[in-house]
Amino acid sequence: MSLTQAHLEIARALGVGIVPATDTPGAAELPVAEMIFSVAASWPREMQQQLAGSLEFVDTLSQNLFGEGVAQLDAYTLATFVELLADSADLRPFWVPFRTLVVLNYYGLPEGYEPLGLPGPSIDSGGFTADGEPAAAA
């Protein structure tokens, strides 16, 4: 089993539930899901299968609860569903890393960090010191 376009759509919809559009773009307006899948492409096949299986499980859960897959849920129902996922101890091994990847990828993009007044990623230039100043590049 490999990650498919259907898996990408589920991931994109979940991203919307985590970072919805407000006065700034949400996760759906940025390539957040695509960035996650780009990272997942480097994972061992077993980990990719776990991600695919988890996305399929979550989509089936959505269908069972709401009669529609995750990608078809309206904004209110999606927010409710994401809350259910976040509160489920059984889904924590999937949800916590997935949510973390969404947030890290979202706030790693200029549209995510600039409205907050953050300087953006600095890993290529040595990071930031404890006082918040850019470190000298090595």
Q: How would you portray this structure in words?
A:
It comes from Microbulbifer rhizosphaerae. InterPro entries: Gluconate_2DH_su3. This is Gluconate 2-dehydrogenase subunit 3. With 138 residues, this protein is mainly alpha-helical. The chain has one domain (5-107). The chain is 57% helix and 0% strand. The protein has helices at 5-18, 32-40, 45-66, 75-87, 92-107, 110-113. The longest helix is centred in the middle third of the chain and has 22 residues, at 45-66. The relative contact order is 0.14. The mean pLDDT is 89.
Radius of gyration over alpha carbons? Answer: 17 Å
Helix fraction bin:
55-70%
Strand count: 0
Q: If helices are DSSP runs of H or I spanning 4 or more residues, what is the number of helices?
A: 6
Could you give the distance between the termini?
42 Å
Strand content: under 5%
SSE pattern, N- to C-terminal? HHHHHH
Helix-strand makeup class: mainly alpha
Overall spatial form: globular
How many separate domains? 1
Whole-number mean pLDDT? 89
The biggest beta sheet is recorded as:
none
Uncertain regions spanning at least 5 consecutive residues: none
Summarize, please.
This protein has 138 residues and is an all-alpha fold. It is built from six helices and no strands.
Secondary-structure topology with pairs:
Blueprint lengths: L4 H14 L13 H9 L4 H22 L8 H13 L4 H16 L2 H4 L25
Helix pairs in contact: 1-2, 1-4, 2-5
